[in-house]
Amino acid sequence: MNEFTSWHQDTLGERTVKALIKNNFGAAYVKTAKEAMDKILALVPKEAAVGIGGSWTLSEMGMTKTLEARGNTVYDHNKPGLAPEESMALRRKQLTCDVFMTSANAVTLDGQIVNVDGAGNRVAAMIFGPKKVIIVAGVNKIARDVADGQNAHKALRCPINVKRLNRQNPCVQSGECMDCQLPTRICNVTTIMHKKPAVTDVQVFIVGEDLGF
Ligand code: SF4
């Protein structure tokens, strides 16, 4: 990465972290996913039961494998080979786990966190239930404001997730949201965390790399 891009990412990342802290979230800016991983592992006891929300960012980081290798119980409903009922049971366990980890669809420069979900299990666990929530977001998730975050995510990034899930929604043909009405639609619930939820400990790591989508 050239020095100007690096400067820009650091500037936006640090500015976003300051705004998150002002909104009562725990927050830190780290340059790399490796640094984020080290800080996350230091926060999570080995005996903790950890829920993993659907997140390409965590998948890219190898979070489930890393946690399992150190002895954590991990509830990851996207593990290959799960029967639908097993996947559903893991989603329910995530709602009351010790630590829930996920990414965010957008984090705004004024410190708000925007997410769009299909079933809603991920956004539910981010708000109440788990004792601790850890959110990891690359600088590519930073948005100017809530409207910008919603638009960028739903219009242009959701179709990538639909493609990843191998669904045949119209956005897979067009590359942009067509506001479909199909049962396979993944954009049914939008949440905006304006401030840290009152009784949930939420820690956000903004990473100076592009992670997820
Ligand atoms: S609403 Fe439908 S068309 Fe739009 S991004 Fe979501 S799944 Fe795709």
Report on this structure:
The chain has 213 residues and is an alpha/beta fold. The protein has a single domain (3-207), classed as Rossmann fold (3-Layer(aba) Sandwich). It has helices spanning 3-22, 33-43, 56-61, 63-69, 84-94, 121-127, 146-164, 171-174, and strands at 26-30, 49-52, 73-76, 99-102, 106-108, 113-117, 132-138, 142-143, 189-193, 201-207. The strands form two sheets. It has a six-stranded parallel β-sheet with strand order 1-10-7-4-2-3, with helices on both faces. The two termini are 19 Å apart. The protein binds iron/sulfur cluster.
Topology, element by element:
Blueprint (H helix, E strand, L loop, with lengths): L2 H20 L3 E5 L2 H11 L5 E4 L3 H6 L1 H7 L3 E4 L7 H11 L4 E4 L3 E3 L4 E5 L3 H7 L4 E7 L3 E2 L2 H19 L6 H4 L14 E5 L7 E7 L6
Parallel strand pairs: 1-10, 2-3, 2-4, 4-7, 5-8, 7-10
Antiparallel strand pairs: 5-6, 6-9
The protein binds iron/sulfur cluster (SF4).
The site of iron/sulfur cluster has 13 residues, from helix 7.
Can you describe this structure in just a few lines?
This protein has 213 residues and is α/β, with parallel strands linked by helices. The protein has helices at 3-22, 33-43, 56-61, 63-69, 84-94, 121-127, 146-164, 171-174, and strands at residues 26-30, 49-52, 73-76, 99-102, 106-108, 113-117, 132-138, 142-143, 189-193, 201-207. The strands form two sheets. A six-stranded parallel sheet has the order 1-10-7-4-2-3, sandwiched between helices. Strands 8-5-6-9 form a four-stranded mixed sheet, sandwiched between helices.
Termini Cα gap: 19 Å
CATH first level: which class? Alpha Beta
Residues in helices, as a percent range: 25-40%
Parts with pLDDT < 50 across at least 5 consecutive residues? none
Strand content range:
15-25%
In total, the number of domains comes to 1
Ions, cofactors and other ligands present here are: iron/sulfur cluster
CATH-level-2 architecture: 3-Layer(aba) Sandwich
Q: What is the approximate shape?
A: globular
Provide the CATH topology. Answer: Rossmann fold
Instruction: Give, in order, the helices and strands.
Output: HEHEHHEHEEEHEEHHEE
Spatial strand sequence of the major β-sheet: 1-10-7-4-2-3
- CA radius of gyration: 17 Å
The oligomeric status of these chains comes to single chain
Number of strands: 10
Put simply, the count of helices is 8
Major sheet size, sense and barrel closure:
6 strands, parallel
By CATH, the superfamily comes out as NagB/RpiA/CoA transferase-like
Give the rounded overall mean pLDDT: 95
